[in-house]
Structure formats: C-alpha cells, structure tokens
Write a structure and sequence with these properties.
Organism: Marispirochaeta aestuarii
Structural class: alpha/beta
CATH topology of the largest domain: Isopropylmalate Dehydrogenase
Bound molecules: nicotinamide-adenine-dinucleotide, 3-isopropylmalic acid, manganese (II) ion
CATH architecture of the largest domain: 3-Layer(aba) Sandwich
Order of helices and strands: EHEHHEHEHEEEHEHEHEHEEHHEEH
EC number: 1.1.1.85
Largest sheet: 10 strands, mixed
Number of strands: 14
Binding site for substrate: 98, 108, 137, 222
Pathway: Amino-acid biosynthesis; L-leucine biosynthesis; L-leucine from 3-methyl-2-oxobutanoate: step 3/4
CATH class of the largest domain: Alpha Beta
GO biological process, one term: L-leucine biosynthetic process
Length: 360
C-alpha cells in the first residue's frame, strides 16, 4: 500500500477546527484508493509561540521537510498582536515557511458553485452561469520580502522589488495554467506608477510571444478590483504580484459566497517530470471573530486538501471526488452560516465535514 506523509499544521483560531474536517475527508480518500496517509502534526503560529516560544520551531520545519506535502490551517490572532512584528505568527511563521520551501506560486481558484449563486453578494445577472477564476499570485517576492524594510517610529518603509527572473518564473506558470483552462490571461500591475511593475509588464509581454495560443491582456490593479465586481466573468486566469494577489484573491473569494470557500496551493519549483512540493491552506485567516464556536466553513480547508492530492501527489481523481462530494452536500441544501441563504439547512463545521466525508 502506498503511504504518503502529510505534515499537518493546524495553527490558530479556526485552523484546528477546519483541519479536523479535512483529515476526516482524507481518511475516506485513503480507504477508497487503498492508500495510507501518515499525518505528522506540528505546531505553528500563535500556538507554537505559547508552547515553544517561537512561531516557527525548527521541529516544525523538519516535519515539513520530511513530508510529501504540507497541509496548513491558519495563523494569527489578537493574542499575539502585541509582540514585535517579526515574531508574530504571520511574519514569524507563515512568510518564512513560504521562503524556506521556495513556494513561489500561489494558486487560488475562486469558483462559484452553481448551488451557491444565492450566497454571492453579486446580482444573479452578473454571476450568470457561474464564475470560475484562477488567481495566480507570486508568493516569495515583491513588497512582502524586499529589503530594506523597517519602522523606527518616525519612518516606516517597505521595498517592492522584483527581478526579471522572478517575474518570468511566475509568468510561465500562469501561461501554462491558462493553457489548461480557457487560454485567457490578464496580468495585473500598476505599471503607470511603480517601476517594479513597468518591468513586470515588459517581462510578461515578452513571455507572451512564447504562448501565442493564450490571449494576454494587462490591467491596472485598481481597475481590476473594480472589474471583478462589475463583470467577474471576463476573467479566466489573473496573474498578480504578491500584494495585489493577496488583495484581489480575497475579493474574488467573496464573489463565490465566502472567504471560507477559497482554498490555495503554494507550490515550489518542480524538477523535470516530478510534481512540486507544496503547502496547502485556506486563503482566509484564523477568523478570531468566529473561532471556537463550531460554525466556521471547512470547505476551503477540505478543498485545500484536495488540491494537495492533485498538485503534489498526482491524485487527480481523488480531487474530483472531493469536489463532487462538496457539490452533493450543497445540492442537499446544507450550508454553514457564512453561505446560508433562505430555505437552506444550516449546519456547523463538524456536520459539514461529516457529510462531505460521507459522500466519498
Ligand atoms: P480572516 O480571513 O481570518 O477573516 C475575515 C472574515 O472572514 C471574518 O469575518 C471571518 O469570520 C471570515 N472567515 C474567514 N474564514 C472563514 C471560514 N472558514 N468560515 C466562515 N467565515 C470565515 O481575516 P482577518 O480577520 O483579517 O485576520 C484574522 C487573523 O488571521 C489575523 O491574525 C491575520 O493576520 C490572520 N490571517 C492568517 C492567514 C493565514 O494563516 N494564511 C490568512 C489571512 C489572515
Ligand atoms: C494570505 C494571508 C497572508 C498574506 C498573511 C497572513 C501573511 O493574508 O495568505 O493571504 O498576506 O499572504
Ligand atoms: Mn490574504
């Protein structure tokens, strides 16, 4: 029997609550495909600060290194917001993890399930027959990581830097992604103001010549934010730098009904003929406002587990099973609070996970 090791890092807030549901679903997948998942848990974020004095203990990094892929919950919360910024869960754990493992490509698929059209805040006419966009976000460069950065109480500064190589690397992945979808790529930038983004547009334009079958256009980020609510269906793949992708993916998620629906894959470069190492996590955060109440939507975490199976383990059919199971449960009218609409049956985190697992 094939065994895969999955590092499980639930983190803080709703992280552990939704992670438990993803594990239930993976256990069912293992049974169905005669596989075995060896889940190796590790502390990360606030809980790691509380237990080990730092947000990213070496043991946690080692656990990830030994695994075939990482399933991550979310980190952060009010309890740790008074610590020095570099020690907080986000900057002390999540960003270093992305850097250590070279997770340069962040895929965030925002899809309106037909059953959830009513949960979208946009009018039915705007959603039309559905919305399915893939945000491809560069994840290890840009203003998140550029040096210098600091805050001396009088001056706070961050530096936005991209090299042509970094832009080309994420650009290629976006073109390839578009090729496997509807062959439309919109590159998002702010080339009218930022030098980094002038280079971004130059590199992507040049790369476009290698992908004549993909229709490439460029859009300023402010316009893109507006176009996403005006006519979201114009987009197929949206390519963004680190910060713009962070912002636009939250916006895209809400079109699907809730941030609790948006999974993500953060991928490293793959060797020729191999699948990439990846960290898989919901795009949303630890949701302190609803943590501990058993009402969080586990679907983003479950879909993230599905993406792990597909992108790092090559188990495409298992991903399809998870997707279909979610659709099945939504078809039966079950909803967590965030995607609730009149006439539907409201259930909690655990029941949603049980019902999805039950359909595998
Ligand atoms: P958030 O994403 O945690 O929450 C924003 C809103 O979306 C909240 O109202 C929340 O209840 C809702 N929401 C998010 N996920 C949901 C789910 N699964 N089901 C139902 N509702 C859901 O963003 P925030 O409030 O700005 O940040 C809270 C903390 O999370 C901060 O410490 C932030 O830095 C951290 N954060 C972590 C990650 C991560 O670990 N990847 C991502 C984003 C934010
Ligand atoms: C995300 C989060 C992170 C980011 C934070 C928590 C560092 O918002 O994964 O979208 O900005 O990348
Ligand atoms: Mn974000």
């Amino acid at each position: 029997m094939k065994t895969y090791t999955i590092a499980v890092l639930p983190g803080d807030g709703i992280g552990p609550e939704v992670m438990a549901e993803a594990e239930k679903v993976l256990a069912k997948i293992a049974g169905k495909y005669d596989l075995s998942f060896n889940f190796t848990p590790a502390d990360v974020g606030g809980i790691a600060i509380d237990r080990h004095g730092k947000a990213l203990p070496e043991d946690t990094v080692e656990t990830c290194r030994k695994a075939d892929a990482v399933l991550f919950g979310s980190v952060g919360g009010p309890k740790w917001e008074t610590l020095p910024p570099e020690e907080q869960p986000e900057r002390g754990a999540l960003l270093p993890l992305r850097k250590i493992f070279g997770l340069f490509a962040n895929l965030r698929p925002a899809i309106v399930f037909p059953q959830l059209k009513e949960a979208s805040p946009l009018k039915a006419g705007i959603i039309g027959e559905g919305f399915d966009v893939m945000v491809v976000r560069e994840l290890t460069g840009g203003i998140y990581f550029g040096q210098p950065k600091g805050n001396d109480g009088v001056k706070g500064f961050d530096t936005m830097v991209y090299t042509a190589d970094e832009i080309e690397r994420i650009g290629r992945l976006a073109f390839e992604t578009a090729r496997r979808r509807n062959s439309r790529l919109v590159s998002i930038d702010k080339a009218n103001v930022l030098s980094t983004m002038v280079l971004w547009r130059q590199v992507i334009t040049k790369l476009g010549a290698e992908y004549p079958d993909v229709s490439l256009s460029h859009m300023y980020v402010d316009n893109a934010a507006m176009q996403l609510v005006r006519n979201p269906r114009q987009f197929d793949v949206m390519l963004c730098g680190n910060m713009f992708g962070d912002i636009l993916s939250d916006e895209a998620s809400m079109i699907t009904g809730s941030l609790g629906m948006l999974p993500s894959a953060s991928l490293a470069e793959a060797s020729e003929g191999e699948l990439p190492f990846g960290l898989y996590e919901p795009s949303g955060g630890s949701a302190p406002d609803i943590a501990g109440q058993g009402i969080a939507n586990p679907i983003a975490q479950i879909l993230s587990a599905g993406m792990l199976l597909k992108y790092s383990l090559g188990l495409d059919k298992a991903y399809d099973d998870i997707y279909a199971a979610i659709e099945g449960v939504l078809d039966e009218g079950y909803r967590t609070a965030d995607i609730m609409s009149p006439g539907m049956k409201q259930i909690g985190t655990g029941e949603m996970g049980d019902r999805i697992a039950g359909k595998i």
